[in-house]
Amino acid sequence: MDLHNIDHYLQPTDINKVTKWGEGWSWLAGGTWLFSEPQPEIKTLVDIQSLGWDEIDLMNSSNSDRGELLAIGATCPLIKLLQHPWLPEYTAVEGFRGAINALSASLKVVNIATVGGNICLALSVGTLAPIMVALDASYEIWNHKGKSRIVTAKEFQIASRQTILQSGELLRRVLIPVENMKWQVDYQRFGIAASDTALAIVVGAYNSTAKKLRLAIGASVAAPVLLEFEAGLENNFNYIASLKNLDFIEDAKASAVYRREITQILIKQCLNQLAVSS
Question: In terms of pTM, does the model score above 0.90?
Fold first, then answer.
């Protein structure tokens, strides 16, 4: 869809060249959602594709507790996560594949849509946010002046279509501890039809060495929710009690009660899959 209301289009090669930010300005990455519907409030687009932020690389953490990190640039296209030559011990990559395969999108969209765009759009049905929360990822956030801060994935999205990003801020890269990429991961999703958006998503990440389980709940709630347990998979996790305090979405697609029940079923399926693969 053409956006006829756009007055200015900027394509900086250096973030520091964006010297101002104002009302009606918007960052542009892949643009698969941005150009899918009218955006009457946007007057200026700042295209960040030319910044070269599409890396998948390793970097050292400034926090000694985090160790070596896997860095995924914000403009990394989703298809690159599927085609990258991952090391065999990075078993958590199965979670990336599950998240991307869960998208109701054509191959053309997967080739263009970006990691940062999927996360920052912050839809309740977003596919990448739950896996990042499950893997204890952090997000490096920049503003147009080049200043940065780090936030955890679980605190980034606060509601459907709402994040902690301030005006002029954008996601620079996703940071995942390399050791967490060796966890066993299972991605479960349920929709009325395969092409429909999800009514519930559950991502389980299990650290068999430390006997720790992280369950990220998405789609059935407005923003991803993390449940953590410390025990072997053979234990009977009291996840049903953990779900009682969550506010499940109630809308025309499904009741809150139905979404809760589906979430419970997906958790059970997830735990079964993780037990088989561990």
Answer: yes
Dihedral sign for Cα atoms in the order 90, 95, 98, 99:
negative
pLDDT of residue 109: 80
Is the distance from CB of 127 to CB of 201 less than 8 angstroms? yes
d(CA 12, CA 18): 7
Q: Give strand pairing partners of 77.
A: 114
Q: Tell me the C-alpha distance between 232 and 251, whole Å.
A: 36
Kindly provide the residue ranges of all beta strands, DSSP E only, lying in 144-183, ordered along the sequence. 148-152, 157-159, 162-163, 169-177
What are the 10-residue block averages of pLDDT along the chain, 278 residues in total?
80 91 91 78 91 94 80 96 96 96 76 94 95 98 89 97 96 97 97 86 95 96 95 74 92 96 95 84
pLDDT at 277: 75
For residue 225, the model assigns a pLDDT of 97
Rg (CA), the chain: 19
Between the CA of residue 10 and those of 4, 17, 33, 46, 249, what are the distances in Å? 16, 10, 19, 5, 38
117, 119, 149: which is closest to 133 by C-alpha? 119
C-alpha distances out from residue 216 to 88, 93, 106, 189, 193, Å: 24, 16, 26, 12, 22
Bridge-based pairing of strands 44-47 and 25-28 is parallel
Q: How far apart are CA 108 and CA 95, in angstroms?
A: 21
Place of tokens 């007055």: 7
Q: Would you say how long the chain is, in residues?
A: 278
